[in-house]
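Tutorial handout. Part one gives the primary structure; part two gives the three-dimensional structure as C-alpha coordinates.
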Amino acid sequence: MNNSDLISQAKNIASENWGGAIVAGLVYMLASSVSGFIPGLALLLGGPLALGFTIWSLSVIRDNDFNVERIFDGFSNFGNSLVTFLLMVLLIFLWTLLFIIPGIIKALAYSQVFYILADHPEIKGMDALRMSEEMMKGSKSKLFLLYLIFGLLSILCIFTLGIGYLFLIPVMQLTMARFYQELKGEEPEVDNIGQIGVE
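Part two.
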Protein backbone atom coordinates (compact mmCIF):
# COMPACT_ATOMS: atom_id res chain seq x y z
CA MET A 1 0.00 0.00 0.00
CA ASN A 2 1.47 3.37 -0.95
CA ASN A 3 1.68 6.41 1.32
CA SER A 4 -1.22 8.24 -0.31
CA ASP A 5 -3.46 5.25 0.43
CA LEU A 6 -2.38 5.21 4.07
CA ILE A 7 -3.09 8.93 4.43
CA SER A 8 -6.45 8.59 2.67
CA GLN A 9 -7.47 5.76 4.98
CA ALA A 10 -6.45 7.72 8.07
CA LYS A 11 -8.31 10.83 6.88
CA ASN A 12 -11.49 8.89 6.23
CA ILE A 13 -11.36 7.18 9.61
CA ALA A 14 -10.81 10.54 11.32
CA SER A 15 -13.76 11.98 9.41
CA GLU A 16 -16.05 9.56 11.26
CA ASN A 17 -15.50 11.70 14.37
CA TRP A 18 -13.57 14.86 13.56
CA GLY A 19 -14.56 16.34 16.91
CA GLY A 20 -13.00 13.49 18.87
CA ALA A 21 -9.91 13.44 16.64
CA ILE A 22 -9.33 17.18 16.96
CA VAL A 23 -9.83 17.18 20.73
CA ALA A 24 -7.36 14.31 21.11
CA GLY A 25 -4.78 16.16 19.02
CA LEU A 26 -5.29 19.35 21.05
CA VAL A 27 -4.96 17.53 24.37
CA TYR A 28 -1.73 15.88 23.26
CA MET A 29 -0.30 19.15 21.89
CA LEU A 30 -1.26 21.03 25.06
CA ALA A 31 0.23 18.41 27.37
CA SER A 32 3.43 18.24 25.32
CA SER A 33 3.72 22.03 25.11
CA VAL A 34 3.20 22.57 28.83
CA SER A 35 5.81 19.94 29.72
CA GLY A 36 8.22 21.54 27.26
CA PHE A 37 8.22 24.83 29.19
CA ILE A 38 9.50 23.19 32.37
CA PRO A 39 13.16 22.03 32.30
CA GLY A 40 13.43 18.25 32.46
CA LEU A 41 9.67 17.69 32.40
CA ALA A 42 9.62 17.02 28.66
CA LEU A 43 12.05 14.13 29.13
CA LEU A 44 10.04 12.86 32.10
CA LEU A 45 6.65 12.94 30.39
CA GLY A 46 7.67 12.48 26.75
CA GLY A 47 7.53 8.68 26.93
CA PRO A 48 4.16 8.26 28.68
CA LEU A 49 2.55 10.91 26.45
CA ALA A 50 3.93 9.37 23.26
CA LEU A 51 2.76 5.94 24.39
CA GLY A 52 -0.67 7.30 25.30
CA PHE A 53 -1.18 9.03 21.95
CA THR A 54 -0.10 5.80 20.27
CA ILE A 55 -2.61 3.78 22.31
CA TRP A 56 -5.32 6.27 21.32
CA SER A 57 -4.47 6.04 17.61
CA LEU A 58 -4.51 2.22 17.62
CA SER A 59 -7.85 2.26 19.46
CA VAL A 60 -9.31 4.51 16.77
CA ILE A 61 -7.90 2.45 13.90
CA ARG A 62 -8.94 -0.88 15.36
CA ASP A 63 -12.13 -0.16 17.27
CA ASN A 64 -13.32 3.34 16.22
CA ASP A 65 -12.74 4.32 19.85
CA PHE A 66 -12.03 8.08 19.92
CA ASN A 67 -12.01 8.29 23.74
CA VAL A 68 -9.55 11.11 24.48
CA GLU A 69 -8.79 9.70 27.94
CA ARG A 70 -6.73 6.97 26.27
CA ILE A 71 -4.02 9.56 25.67
CA PHE A 72 -3.19 9.23 29.37
CA ASP A 73 -3.12 5.42 29.33
CA GLY A 74 0.63 5.61 28.78
CA PHE A 75 1.05 6.64 32.42
CA SER A 76 -0.11 3.16 33.46
CA ASN A 77 3.23 1.97 32.06
CA PHE A 78 5.15 5.03 33.22
CA GLY A 79 8.47 3.44 34.18
CA ASN A 80 8.88 1.36 31.05
CA SER A 81 7.79 4.14 28.70
CA LEU A 82 10.11 6.62 30.42
CA VAL A 83 13.16 4.34 30.22
CA THR A 84 12.38 3.44 26.60
CA PHE A 85 11.99 7.10 25.63
CA LEU A 86 15.27 8.09 27.33
CA LEU A 87 17.12 5.21 25.68
CA MET A 88 15.74 6.15 22.28
CA VAL A 89 16.63 9.83 22.67
CA LEU A 90 20.13 8.95 23.90
CA LEU A 91 20.86 6.50 21.10
CA ILE A 92 19.57 8.83 18.38
CA PHE A 93 21.64 11.66 19.88
CA LEU A 94 24.79 9.52 19.92
CA TRP A 95 24.26 8.40 16.32
CA THR A 96 23.65 12.02 15.32
CA LEU A 97 27.04 12.97 16.80
CA LEU A 98 28.63 10.76 14.14
CA PHE A 99 26.74 12.61 11.43
CA ILE A 100 23.19 13.75 10.71
CA ILE A 101 22.39 10.86 8.34
CA PRO A 102 23.04 8.02 10.84
CA GLY A 103 20.88 9.86 13.36
CA ILE A 104 18.01 10.11 10.88
CA ILE A 105 18.35 6.43 9.98
CA LYS A 106 18.20 5.41 13.64
CA ALA A 107 15.21 7.68 14.28
CA LEU A 108 13.39 5.92 11.45
CA ALA A 109 14.50 2.51 12.73
CA TYR A 110 13.14 3.25 16.22
CA SER A 111 9.85 4.75 14.96
CA GLN A 112 7.74 1.73 15.93
CA VAL A 113 8.88 1.50 19.55
CA PHE A 114 5.76 2.92 21.18
CA TYR A 115 3.44 0.89 18.95
CA ILE A 116 5.27 -2.20 20.14
CA LEU A 117 4.88 -1.08 23.76
CA ALA A 118 1.20 -0.33 23.18
CA ASP A 119 0.63 -3.92 22.04
CA HIS A 120 3.15 -5.50 24.43
CA PRO A 121 3.52 -3.34 27.57
CA GLU A 122 5.69 -5.96 29.26
CA ILE A 123 8.51 -5.64 26.71
CA LYS A 124 11.53 -3.75 28.01
CA GLY A 125 13.08 -0.72 26.32
CA MET A 126 16.10 -2.24 24.60
CA ASP A 127 14.05 -5.18 23.36
CA ALA A 128 11.43 -2.79 21.94
CA LEU A 129 14.16 -0.81 20.19
CA ARG A 130 15.61 -3.96 18.65
CA MET A 131 12.15 -5.17 17.58
CA SER A 132 11.45 -1.80 15.95
CA GLU A 133 14.73 -1.96 14.03
CA GLU A 134 13.81 -5.42 12.78
CA MET A 135 10.30 -4.31 11.74
CA MET A 136 11.64 -1.31 9.86
CA LYS A 137 14.10 -3.21 7.69
CA GLY A 138 13.27 -2.32 4.09
CA SER A 139 10.64 0.27 5.13
CA LYS A 140 12.72 3.23 6.29
CA SER A 141 12.67 4.99 2.92
CA LYS A 142 8.88 4.69 2.75
CA LEU A 143 8.49 6.20 6.21
CA PHE A 144 10.99 8.95 5.37
CA LEU A 145 8.88 9.93 2.35
CA LEU A 146 5.78 9.87 4.55
CA TYR A 147 7.49 12.26 6.96
CA LEU A 148 8.40 14.53 4.04
CA ILE A 149 4.77 14.63 2.90
CA PHE A 150 3.61 15.61 6.38
CA GLY A 151 6.43 18.13 6.64
CA LEU A 152 5.21 19.87 3.49
CA LEU A 153 1.62 19.73 4.70
CA SER A 154 2.73 21.26 8.00
CA ILE A 155 4.26 24.19 6.12
CA LEU A 156 1.01 24.67 4.20
CA CYS A 157 -0.91 24.72 7.49
CA ILE A 158 0.93 27.92 8.40
CA PHE A 159 -1.07 29.68 5.70
CA THR A 160 -4.33 28.57 7.35
CA LEU A 161 -3.40 30.56 10.49
CA GLY A 162 -2.77 27.23 12.22
CA ILE A 163 -6.29 25.88 11.76
CA GLY A 164 -5.02 23.17 9.42
CA TYR A 165 -2.96 21.67 12.24
CA LEU A 166 -6.18 20.74 14.06
CA PHE A 167 -6.91 18.29 11.25
CA LEU A 168 -3.36 17.39 10.26
CA ILE A 169 -2.10 16.18 13.64
CA PRO A 170 -4.73 13.45 14.21
CA VAL A 171 -4.47 12.38 10.54
CA MET A 172 -0.69 12.11 10.93
CA GLN A 173 -1.06 10.00 14.06
CA LEU A 174 -3.65 7.70 12.50
CA THR A 175 -1.54 7.35 9.35
CA MET A 176 1.41 6.20 11.46
CA ALA A 177 -0.85 3.69 13.19
CA ARG A 178 -1.90 2.32 9.79
CA PHE A 179 1.78 2.19 8.79
CA TYR A 180 2.43 0.05 11.87
CA GLN A 181 -0.51 -2.18 11.02
CA GLU A 182 0.86 -2.66 7.53
CA LEU A 183 4.28 -3.62 8.91
CA LYS A 184 2.56 -6.23 11.06
CA GLY A 185 0.42 -7.46 8.19
CA GLU A 186 -2.66 -6.39 10.16
CA GLU A 187 -5.65 -5.29 8.10
CA PRO A 188 -8.21 -2.62 9.13
CA GLU A 189 -11.49 -3.77 10.65
CA VAL A 190 -14.12 -4.90 8.12
CA ASP A 191 -16.39 -1.94 8.94
CA ASN A 192 -13.55 0.49 8.32
CA ILE A 193 -12.63 -1.17 5.05
CA GLY A 194 -16.05 -0.48 3.67
CA GLN A 195 -16.12 3.06 4.96
CA ILE A 196 -12.65 4.08 3.78
CA GLY A 197 -13.06 2.57 0.36
CA VAL A 198 -10.33 -0.05 0.37
CA GLU A 199 -10.66 -2.14 -2.73
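Part three, for discussion. The chain is about 75% helix and 0% strand. Confidence is low (pLDDT under 50) at residues 193-199.
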